[in-house]
Amino acid sequence: MNWFLLVLAGLFEVVWAIGLKHTEGFTKLTPSIITVAAMGISFYLLSAALRTLPLGTAYGVWVGIGAVGTAVAGILLFNETATPLKLVSLVLVVAGIAGLKLSSAA
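RE: above sequence
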């Protein structure tokens, strides 16, 4: 269950990162509210997952999900370039996330 919470926390990190782009420096109310709410949910879910998961593993997975998800969202939603180096780098981050998960006993 805590791995599920951790994945959800990572997905909410992607939501707040995308929302941050839309806040325009927190000058737009609705995107700002959504962004801050997603931040709170993400941090809460991360803290709940940390009840049983190792800190280094959980934090690494959370950041990795957020980084990969945000980079993919940037490519799909904001027409950011998808260079071969960027794509290979994202695959390496996913491999690191999988390695952290496999190395965890929890």
